[in-house]
Amino acid sequence: MDPVLVLGLSVFCLFLLSLWRQSSGRDKLPPGPTPLPIIGNILQINFKDLSKSLTNISKVYGPVFTVYLGMKPTVVLHGYEAIKEALIDYGEEFSGRGKLAMSEKINKGLGIVSSNGKYWKKTRRFSLMTLRNFGMGKRSIEDRVQEEACCLVEELRKTNGSPCDPTFILGSAPSNVICSIIFHNRFDYNDQNFLVLMKRVNENIKILSSPWIQICNIFPALINYFPGSHNRLIKNVSEMRTYVLEKVKEHQASLDINNPRDFIDCFLIKMEEEKHNQESVFTMESLLVTVSDLFAAGTETTSTTLRYALLLLTMHPDITAKLQEEIDRVIGRHRIPCMQDRSNMPYMDAVLHETQRYIDLVPAGVPHSVTCDIKFRNYHIPKGTTILASLSSVLNDNKEFPNPEMFDPGHFLDESGNFKKSDYFMPFSSGKRICVGEGLARMELFLFLTTILQHFNLKSAVDPKDLDTTPVTKGFISLPPKYQMCFTPV
Length: 490
Description:
Layout: H1 3-23, H2 50-61, E1 64-69, E2 72-78, H3 80-89, E3 96-97, H4 101-107, H5 117-133, H6 141-157, H7 167-182, H8 192-208, H9 211-218, H10 221-225, H11 229-253, H12 263-273, H13 284-315, H14 317-330, H15 346-359, E4 368-369, E5 374-376, E6 379-381, E7 386-390, H16 391-395, H17 438-455, E8 456-460, E9 473-474, E10 478-479, E11 485-489
Parallel strand pairs: 2-7
Antiparallel strand pairs: 1-2, 3-4, 4-7, 5-6, 8-11, 9-10
Helix pairs in contact: 6-7, 6-17, 7-13, 8-11, 11-13, 13-15, 13-17
C-alpha cells in the first residue's frame, strides 16, 4: 500500500479516535469550551500566563469547568468556594496527584510530589514526621535556620554595599538549610559541588516554567522523539541523583542506627527495618527521588519568595521603614531573631503574607486528580481525571483582598494593626496535598527577612520607579525579573 495512503489513513483514524474520546462522557463533565480534535483547547490557553487564561474561561463557564489539554479532560476549580469544597470538604477524593508526562519520565511515580496511593501516604507521613521531629534533643530546625541567617548576613556584608544581583545568595541560604537536614552538613557558598547543584535547580525551574514543557506534558511523544529543553532537564535531574547516590553511599558506610544524623540516615534505618517486606515503599530508588524532591522544593520556592520580597521592599521604602522600626522595638540590633518574636511582630507577619499573596508563586498549583468516580456539584468526574485548582483565583479575590493588584500589607491587618488571618491565604495549596515543607518555608521567610532588615538598609541600583515586579514567566512558577540592589549596613 502507498505509504502516503497509510499515513493519511492513520491520521484520519487518530482524528476519529480523538473525536470519540472527547465526546465520550463530555455531557457528564462540567461545561467548558468545545475542544478541537487531538489538540483540545490549547489554542485558547496562553501557557505563558495560564492563570489568566483560566480566569477568562471561568467568566463564561463558571467556577467549575472542563478544558481539554490535548485529548484528555482537565477539570478546573476557580475561586475559593470551589477549591475549598473540593480540596478540603472532599479532601480524600481529590487527594490524587495528576499525571504529568515529564514528571512520570523523571520520577516514575516515586518521591513526595508525584506519587499516589499508599506509596504517597507512607512516604509523606514519614517525611513529615522526620522533618518535624528532627534534632532529637540536639539541634532543632530553628537552630539551623538561625545559623544560616547569620551566614547569609556575612555573605551580604562581602558585597560592601555595592550593587549586586542577590539571586544566588538568597538561593544558597534556604538550600543550605535543607542540605543540613538531608545531608547533615551545609556548604560554603563557594563550594563547587554546591554551585553546580544550585545551577541545576535554577535551570530546571526555568525549564519547567516554560511553555515547551507544558506542550510536552500534553503530547508525551515529544519527550522521546524530539530535541528540546526537556532533555536538559532530564540530564540535570540524572546528575543531581548521581550526587545524592554518592552521599547515600557515604551514609551507609558510617551509619549508626542508634544515632541518626539526618533525613538520609532515618530513611536508611527505615529501609533496614522493612527489608523483608516485599511491598515496602522504602527502597533505594525511592530514597533518591524523595531526597531530590526535598532539595529542589526546599531551595527554589523560598528563594524566589525572598527575591520578590526584597524587590517589593525596595519599591516601597515606607513599608521597609515600618518593618525596621518593628524589628528595633521587638528584637533590637544585636539579638538573633527567633520564631517566638513573630507573635509580637504583626506588621512583619502581614508583609510576609502579602508578599506570598501578591507574587502568586504557583498560580495553578500542582495538578491533582480524583481517586475515585465522584459526583461533584451535580457533575460526574471519573476516577483519574486531572484537577487544576487555580490558587491565583483565591489569592487575587477582590472581595477578600480589595485592590488585589496592589501590594498592601493592610490586607492582613485589622483596624487596630493586629495580624488578621484569612482562609483565602493558599500559597501552599490546601487539603491533603498541602506543601509538606510549609512549616519550614514560613520559618525561613520570617527569620531570613527579619535578619536581613535587622542588619541592612535596602537600596535599588536604579531609580525605584523603574523597577517592575512583572514575572518574566508565569508558567508552573512565577519567576521575578532580575534586578540589582545594594545592602548597606545599618
